[in-house]
Design a protein that fits this description.
Elements lengths: L1 E5 L2 E6 L4 E5 L15 E5 L22 H13 L4 E5 L9 H11 L3 E6 L6 H7 L5 E5 L4 H8 L3 H12 L4 E7 L7 H11 L3 E6 L11 H13 L5 E4 L18 H4 E4 L4 E3 L7 E3 L5 H19 L1
Parallel strand pairs: 4-5, 4-11, 5-6, 6-7, 7-8, 8-9, 9-10
Antiparallel strand pairs: 1-2, 2-3, 11-12, 12-13
Helix pairs in contact: 1-2
Bound molecules: iron/sulfur cluster.
The site of iron/sulfur cluster has 10 residues, from loops.
Length: 305
């Protein structure tokens, strides 16, 4: 098991089973805390072959280089990061996607996950990825016609993608919750159970330059649905969309950049993919960029107080 030290104790994690153990009787001093965020998401590329209206991925062409990514992963691994999630754009469109996943799993102790729209998961790709992925996420925004309207792709093709992903690793379903999908949460949770997903991740729609955040009506409908949910597949929610929902956080003191950071396809480190503030990762490495980003937030806080 990999261990990580933080304000809530010593956290042990097994990437093969997904088992987490927190030794909260131990409260190591701050100087001993792991300096990496617990989880880091990495947009390997901005390129995507879909055109979803609510997409938050930047539209300029950018992709990360394999050597660059591997260097950052090794640094994060050494400094106590537990897992990385590749995304995009569509990460499977990165020309070195398979190699990056294989080397990330083989050369680090990180849990390797990725998020995909699912339409490129051919049996050959899945075969190449086997053994290198610890958890996969597939985006399912609505069922049937709703999905097709949101994503511009056939729902039948998504179902084939889900069949493929189920043979690769444990997997979860992501859903952007908005006025079109909130009424389909029952259908999606039933689908999640049927296809063997182990998690349903709710992503209440965030504002982009094209779409607004969910309004009060959708927010209330989501709250009611979660409160009355009796399904078997466990629910999770994005931190940005968690307000008003009943959540359980076993690591309440591990916050902000201690818990999570995002690296975009231009090599900027950010607090999240939506954050306008970032620090460029240069030769000094990802931990140096993290320090710079923390300083930026610190200066901002001081100016505001
Ligand atoms: S599949 Fe994802 S990255 Fe691609 S356009 Fe849709 S939301 Fe954006």
């Amino acid at each position: 098991m990999k261990s990580r030290i933080g304000p809530n104790g010593v956290h042990l994690f097994d990437r093969l089973s997904g088992l987490n153990v927190l030794l909260d009787e131990l409260r190591p001093k701050e100087a001993a805390w792991s300096s990496s965020p617990r989880q880091v998401s990495i947009a390997l590329t901005n390129v995507c072959d879909l055109h979803c209206g609510y997409c938050y991925a930047p539209k300029h062409k950018a992709s990360l280089r394999t050597g660059q990514v591997l260097g950052w992963l090794k640094e994060l691994d050494t400094e106590g990061c537990l897992g990385i999630g590749f995304g995009g754009g569509e990460p499977t469109l990165h020309s070195d996607f398979v190699d990056i996943c294989k080397r990330a799993a083989g050369e680090t102790q990180l849990a390797v996950t990725f998020t995909t729209h699912g339409h490129r998961l051919t049996p050959q790709l899945v075969e190449h990825l086997k053994g290198s992925i610890h958890f996969a996420r597939i985006s399912v925004d609505g069922v049937g016609r709703t999905y097709e309207k949101q994503r511009g792709k056939q729902f039948a093709s998504l179902l084939r993608g889900m069949e493929s992903i189920a043979t690769l690793s444990p997997f979860g379903i992501n859903i952007v919750v908005n006025e079109c999908t909130v009424t389909e949460l029952d259908a999606i949770s039933e689908l999640a159970q049927k296809v063997g997903a182990s998690e349903l991740l709710l992503l209440p729609q965030q504002a982009t330059t094209v779409v607004a955040s969910i309004d009060e009506v959708v927010g209330r409908a989501l709250q009611d649905w979660v409160t009355n949910y009796r399904g078997k597949v466990r629910l999770a929610v994005s931190e940005a969309g968690a307000a008003g929902l009943p959540t359980c956080d076993p690591l309440p003191d591990e916050r902000g950049l201690q818990a999570y950071a995002h690296i975009d396809a231009s090599g900027m480190l950010r607090a999240s993919s939506y954050s306008p503030v970032g620090a460029k990762i240069v030769d000094a490495g990802v931990l140096s960029a993290l320090k710079q980003l923390r300083n930026t937030f610190e200066i901002k806080r001081e100016r505001q107080s």
